[in-house]
Amino acid sequence: MIALFGGTFDPIHNGHLHVIKELLGSKRFEKIIVIPSGDPQLRAVPIASSKDRLAIVQLAIADLKLGDLVEVSDYEITKDEPSFAIDTVRYFKKIYPDQELSWIIGSDAYSKIDQWRESEALRQLISFIVIERPAVESSRGAGAGATKDQEDDDGYDSYGYEDIDALSISATDIREKLSKHESIADLTAQSVERYIIERNLYGSA
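^ thats the sequence. predicted structure below, dont judge the formating
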């Protein structure tokens, strides 16, 4: 199974890297493909440029030293059109026609999945790995168990929750710290912090 991990990564941080390491540690996935978004439709416009966000994701993933187990894709970054998950999934389905694909998503984002373009078609094409975010109210129904696959109303095994002790880190908090010229050394990779400061991203200089 291959997992797709999309997001603005504005910036990528240790919470994201923790998710990657924990999921790979489960031995359920052949690889994880990290996909920085280009022009996301249901989220605020990223503050850093597409080029910078791609660069810091590449730096952070390289620091993990996981080789072919993690790949960074510039598919959405290089598109001339808005980013929609359904298009991204169809793209990777063509590349990996014989592989089962999953999409890594936070519980807060999954609660809005019905707002995504062609959400019904998306649920038929791919399963979702829902990561419970700290301080975010669970979107699970009462009695739902960790890592238990769930069926949507059409009977598809469409999602499963992963309780991986997600770290309580947010890109918003990191940007706020940077704007106050506070250290983020314990929140993201050193190479990422260095890149951000050198280029004065997020008002860090």
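The beta strands are 2-7, 31-36, 70-72, 101-106, 127-131, 149-151, 157-162.
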